[in-house]
C-alpha cells in the first residue's frame, strides 16, 4: 500500500505540472485590463503580458506611469488613467475598453492596485483611516470588477484578484489585513457565482516582496505621522521609546523578510491570465508557502502567541 502511494504521488505531480504548462490560444485576440500599473507587480505584468502578445490595457494612477509604459512596450499596449476609488474614472475606463474590445469582450481583469498606509496599532487610527484604504484595496476591487463583468462574461474570461497572505492572517493592526480579508471573501463568492457563466476567478496571495507598498521609509514616515497626532495619554501608554523600537524592528526584521524577485508574483499572475487550467489560488514567495499559509491553519492560540512574542509592546503591556 505504502509503495502504491509512493508511486502515485509523484505521478500526480507530473500530471499536474503537464496540465499547468498548457496556455490559451490566440493571445493577440485577448484583451487584458490591469489596474495599478505605475509601479511594482502591475507594471511588470503589463510589460510581461505585452511581450507574450496579449492586448494589454494598463490602467495607471499617474501620467508618468502611462508615459513610461508606452515607451517601454509595443504599440498593442494601451494605457488609461484610472483611480479605482472614483466610479466616474471607472466608467470612463469601461467606455474606452468597450470600444477597444468590441465583440470579443474582455479576457481578463487583474485587480492589482493597492496601498499599504495608514498602518499602525488599531487604537491609533480613526474610522476615516480605515475608510480611505478600504476604498482603494477593497471597494476599488469590487467596483472595477462589477463594472467590467459584462465584458468579461462576453469573453468567458477571468477575474484575477491580488489579495495577500494578510488576507489569511493579521499579524499587524490597521486596515490592510481587513481589506485583504475582504478581497478573499469577494473573490470566493464571485468565483462560485461566475462558474455557471464559464468565468474563472483566481486569487493571488503573495508573501512580502520589495515594492512601494513595503517601502520601509514610507512605512516609517507613516507611523511617525500617526504617532505625532496621538493624544498624550495614548503616547504615555506606549512609551516614549516605542517609535524607536518599531524603527529597529523595521530595520532588523522586516527588511530582511522582503523578497526582491518580483517575477515570482508576476509569473503567477501570468499563469492565472493565460493558463488553460489556472489554479484557484497562488501563493508566490517562500514565506507565503512555508510560513504564512501554515500559520493561517494553526489554532489561534498558537498563531497569537507566535506573533505577540515578536511584537513591539506598549510600555504598560501586561504580557
Ligand atoms: N509588495 C508586497 O509585498 C505585496 C504582498 C502582498 C500583496 N501585495 C499587493 O500587490 C498589489 C500591488 O502592489 P505592489 O506591491 O506592486 O506595490 P505598488 O508598486 O505600490 O503598486 C500599487 C499600485 O497601485 C496604484 N494605486 C494606488 N492607489 C490607487 C488608486 N486609487 N487607483 C488606482 N491605482 C492606485 C499605485 O500607484 P502610485 O504608485 O502612483 O501610488 C501603484 O502603481 C497591491 O494590491 C498590494 O496590496 C503586495
UniProtKB/TrEMBL annotation:
The keyword Signal applies. SUPFAM superfamilies: NAD(P)-binding Rossmann-fold domains. GO terms for biological process: steroid metabolic process. Pfam families: adh_short. The keyword Signal applies. Residues 1-21 form the signal peptide. Keywords: Oxidoreductase, Signal. One of its GO terms (molecular function) is oxidoreductase activity. Belongs to the short-chain dehydrogenases/reductases (SDR) family. PANTHER family: DEHYDROGENASE_REDUCTASE (SDR FAMILY) MEMBER 9 (PTHR43313:SF52), SHORT-CHAIN DEHYDROGENASE/REDUCTASE FAMILY 9C (PTHR43313). This is Retinol dehydrogenase 3. It comes from Osmerus mordax.
Amino acid at each position: 500500500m505504502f509503495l502504491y502511494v509512493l508511486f502515485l504521488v509523484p505521478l500526480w505531480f507530473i500530471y499536474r505540472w503537464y496540465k499547468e504548462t498548457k496556455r490559451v490560444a490566440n493571445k493577440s485576440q485577448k484583451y487584458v485590463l490591469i489596474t495599478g500599473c505605475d509601479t511594482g507587480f502591475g507594471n511588470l505584468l503589463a510589460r510581461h503580458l505585452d511581450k507574450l502578445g496579449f492586448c494589454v490595457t494598463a490602467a495607471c494612477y499617474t501620467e508618468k506611469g502611462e508615459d513610461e509604459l508606452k515607451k517601454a512596450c509595443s504599440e498593442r499596449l494601451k494605457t488609461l488613467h484610472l483611480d479605482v476609488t472614483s466610479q466616474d474614472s471607472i466608467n470612463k475606463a469601461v467606455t474606452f475598453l468597450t470600444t477597444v474590445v468590441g465583440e470579443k469582450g474582455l479576457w481578463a481583469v487583474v485587480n492589482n492596485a493597492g496601498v499599504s498606509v495608514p498602518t499602525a496599532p488599531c487604537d491609533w487610527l480613526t474610522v476615516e483611516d480605515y475608510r480611505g484604504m478600504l476604498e482603494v484595496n477593497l471597494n476599488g476591487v469590487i467596483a472595477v470588477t462589477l463594472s467590467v463583468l459584462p465584458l468579461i462574461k462576453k469573453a468567458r474570461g477571468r477575474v484575477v484578484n491580488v489579495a495577500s497572505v494578510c488576507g489569511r492572517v493579521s499579524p499587524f493592526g490597521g486596515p490592510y489585513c481587513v481589506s485583504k480579508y475582504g478581497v478573499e471573501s469577494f473573490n470566493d463568492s464571485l468565483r462560485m457565482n461566475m462558474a455557471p457563466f464559464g468565468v474563472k476567478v483566481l486569487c493571488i496571495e503573495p508573501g512580502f516582496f520589495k515594492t512601494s507598498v513595503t517601502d520601509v521609509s514610507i512605512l516609517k514616515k507613516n507611523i511617525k505621522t500617526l504617532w505625532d497626532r496621538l493624544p498624550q495619554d495614548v503616547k504615555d501608554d506606549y512609551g516614549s521609546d516605542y517609535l524607536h523600537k518599531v524603527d529597529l524592528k523595521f530595520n532588523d526584521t522586516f527588511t530582511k523578510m522582503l523578497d526582491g524577485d518580483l517575477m515570482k508574483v508576476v509569473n503567477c499572475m501570468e499563469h492565472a491570465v493565460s493558463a488553460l487550467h489556472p489554479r484557484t489560488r497562488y501563493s508566490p514567495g517562500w514565506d507565503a508557502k512555508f510560513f504564512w499559509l501554515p500559520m493561517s491553519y494553526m489554532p489561534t492560540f498558537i498563531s497569537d502567541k507566535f506573533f505577540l512574542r515578536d511584537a513591539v509592546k506598549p510600555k504598560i503591556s501586561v504580557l
